[in-house]
Design a protein that fits this description.
alpha/beta, 16 helices, about 30% helix, globular, binds ligand NA7
């Protein structure tokens, strides 16, 4: 049985087919892009959304335990005082249903839904040079056109379901976490296999284990995780956030990752080993991604990183009672935060439960799915009624490449990106005039608290389009040299950190067989990226050809 999204017809939204701008996706990016172009610039805009509601990533990722890793007071739009003042978060880290409520609140407050076509999946987008318009075709066969096409499809929206032989023969149910059934999945009395221990698997396993008869976690790469220390927000904290929001926003815009906390301005070796231990203990007790901010050199100096890595491994060994299981979990060979660092609620504790088993599929890989479970190369077989694929995404480029995008002279995006994504500032691709990508590859996106880069991209794109219209410029497209230089800057920024040393990360596309290995996000920091984009705009959009 599969739950891959069903084919749907277009909704009966607007009758019009010609717009100034078409936006693909109604998550954080698409919602704000619609508001910025329609309500600030006065353009005619239509958002095309495959789902039947707003939410983007949060619409699809309804798996058990789905929760934001950014703190709620920073995981929201900052452009509107009204939105800030009229919304109350309930927990330190919002769970998926609360993020969905927030995005619906935003969409309703800004009256956005009337310009969103739901159930509308884009299957082709072709640039017509003679008319200087993008012609978009939907799965139901509708044709729409616009001067500007903006993709707001998210970085983690194309589910990666490994091509294991035999999946079609499995007699139980299986689900990918990123395409989770809306009605939920009942694990009571079921034997469950979970494949994957990334951020998603680490959130899902403790919740699945609570009701499943048995949970078998298949782990290929052991992973670090730090407790989220999630808790309900106090009224006092909420009042504090509202009273000091301008300062919180200033911090978010000044830090490399867009979070509402700063990175400590000290090396791991500026302090004694005892002081360092005490700092990590305090960060562990405080919880969350702030652990990574304990020292400024954790992500750039291997020795400094080792101190953080060893601390987390020690914690794993302390928490997990069975020494062999603890060793399997703590046997991590990549730098701490070299892959996306998860945060959790009772992840390692889950392996102390009688109904949970950890299986190493790195030394004994998955060979096939059988009618009743998963068989490993050694012949060992694990039975399941339900298989949960927490196997991640064809990140950053997957969804863009599946949209059938063709630029000038019929050039497809697949051809343009054959050797890996090549664009300028993560915003525009040579050969694809008036096409903008929000949080595409080459943007800091996934390395950040996402609303921060999203707001910056959306505002930059809106300002750019305003500039074009004010100056009677029909089209904008990056120069090839500017794109090549940006790709080099993205590579250089990655090489300056430990992130590029991890061979098997989705930042590099390594999780998808055949995908070019190119470090995709810009690791130079959100604040620096913002300054570069501002300078480019102030210099009359240097690096872009304006015609
Ligand atoms: P991730 O971080 O890509 O994790 C996927 C997990 O699935 C990871 O443990 C993978 O092991 C595992 N995986 C993938 N393919 C296989 C196969 N073929 N066999 C065994 N195990 C496999 O995705 P998430 O959904 O957890 O997180 C994505 C982002 O969402 C996250 O970073 C947040 O930003 C939100 P591997 O490590 O590749 O060995």
């Amino acid at each position: 049985m599969t739950n891959v999204a069903q084919t749907r017809g277009d909704s009966t939204g607007s009758e019009a087919t010609e717009f100034d701008a078409l936006v693909v996706g109604a998550g954080f990016s698409g919602l704000y892009q619609l508001h910025a172009l329609r309500d600030r610039l006065g353009l005619t805009v239509q958002v095309l959304e495959a789902a039947d509601g707003v939410g983007g990533t949060w619409y699809w990722n309804r798996y058990p335990g789905a929760r934001c890793d950014s703190e709620s007071h920073s995981y929201c739009f900052s452009f509107s005082e009204e939105l800030i003042n009229d919304w109350e978060w309930s927990e330190r880290y919002p769970a998926q249903p609360e993020v969905m409520r927030y995005l619906n609140f935003v969409a309703d407050r800004l009256d956005l839904k009337r310009d969103i076509r739901f159930h509308t999946k884009v299957v082709a987008a072709e640039y017509d040079e003679a008319r200087n318009r993008w012609l978009v075709t939907t799965e139901a066969g509708a044709h729409l056109s616009a001067t500007y096409l903006i993709t707001a499809v998210g970085c983690l929206s194309a589910a990666n379901i490994p091509d294991f032989p035999g999946l079609d023969r499995f007699e139980g149910d299986w689900h990918h976490t990123g395409l989770w059934p809306h009605e939920g999945v009942d694990f009571a009395g079921k034997r469950v296999i979970q494949i994957g221990t990334g951020s998603t698997g680490i959130q899902a396993a403790p919740v699945i284990a609570e009701t499943a008869e048995h949970l078998t976690v298949l782990q290929r790469t052991p992973n670090y995780s730090v407790p989220a220390q999630n808790a309900p927000l106090t009224d006092e904290f909420r009042r504090h956030v509202k009273a000091t929001y301008p300062e919180i926003r200033r911090v978010m815009r000044s830090t490399p990752n867009g979070h509402a906390f700063t990175i400590a301005d000290r090396s791991a070796f500026d302090v004694t080993p005892e002081e360092r231990e005490a700092i990590y203990e305090a960060a562990w007790a405080k919880g969350g991604l702030q652990f990574r901010a304990s020292f400024r050199d954790v992500l750039v100096n291997k020795e400094a990183n080792d101190t953080a890595a060893e601390f987390v491994k020690k914690k794993i060994r302390e928490i997990v009672k069975d020494p062999a299981t603890a060793e399997q979990l703590a046997n991590i060979d990549h730098p701490y935060a070299g892959k996306r660092p998860p945060i959790d609620t009772n992840y390692f504790e889950t392996f102390n439960r009688d109904n949970v088993t950890l299986v190493d599929v790195r030394t004994d890989p998955i060979e096939e799915i059988t009618a009743t479970g998963v068989r490993l190369r050694s012949g060992a077989e694990h039975v399941a009624d339900i298989i949960v694929f927490a196997t991640g995404f064809d990140a950053m480029t997957g969804t863009l490449l599946k949209m059938g995008i063709r630029g000038r002279d019929g050039l497809t995006l697949e051809q343009a990106w054959e050797a890996g994504p090549r664009n300028y500032l993560g915003l525009q691709v040579p050969g694809f005039p008036n096409l903008f990508t929000v949080t595409g590859p080459g943007s800091p996106s996934v390395l950040c608290n996402m609303p921060v880069p999203i707001e910056q991209h959306v505002e930059w794109i809106a300002d750019c389009i305003a500039h074009l219209r004010q100056h009677g410029i029909d089209r904008i497209e990056p120069e090839a040299a500017a794109a090549d230089d940006w790709v080099e800057q993205v590579n250089r920024a990655a090489r300056a950190t430990l992130l590029s040393e991890v061979e098997h990360s989705w930042y590099l596309g390594a999780n998808v067989p055949g995908k070019p290995r190119v470090f995709m996000p810009y690791a130079g920091g959100m604040a620096r990226y913002r300054a570069i984009c501002d300078e480019v705009a102030a210099n009359g959009y240097s690096g872009f050809a304006l015609r």
